[in-house]
Amino acid sequence: MRAFVGEPGLGHRETFASASQAAATGGITTIICQPTPEPRDRQFGDVDFVLRRPATPRSSNIHPMAALTKGMRGEEMTEIGLLKAAGAVAFSDGDRSVTNAQVMRRALTYARDFDALIVHHTEDPI
Question: What residues form DSSP beta bridges with 61?
Fold first, then answer.
């Protein structure tokens, strides 16, 4: 459900082409790529980047997942409705858990209104 692809921002780790080829080798036809924590606060640009990526030989489909909270800090939710309209297929803070229950409740309520999928990493911080 979630793939940590280096692009945008960390292309030296992995590119869409290499991730797509690796996924196809394993029989995966679609990748939902996680939002990247760096650079922060560029969600609309990141969603657009994934959707408008120049045509490269891909073996798997790639779709963007946007951050659930601004800067993936867990303090304030992102514009879920606008990001979904821009092309985000789901929302997550990646491997970070939203520990503020009020923020999470607001995000879930807001996401319900837009029929948006939330993928949450549940973990209590130590």
Answer: 30
DSSP 31: E
List, for residues 52-71, the tens digit of each pLDDT value. 665 455 567 788 888 898 88
The DSSP secondary structure of 61-123, one letter per residue, reads EEEEEEESBGGGSSSSB--HHHHHHHT--EEE-TT-----HHHHHHHHHHHHHTT--B-----
Please name which of 123, 11, 5, 121 lies closest in space to residue 63, comparing C-alpha atoms.
5
Nearest to 11 by CA among 41, 44, 56: 56
pTM of the model: 0.77
* Residue 110 clears pLDDT 50, i.e. is over it: yes
Residue 91 dihedral angles phi and psi, to the nearest 5°: -135, 135
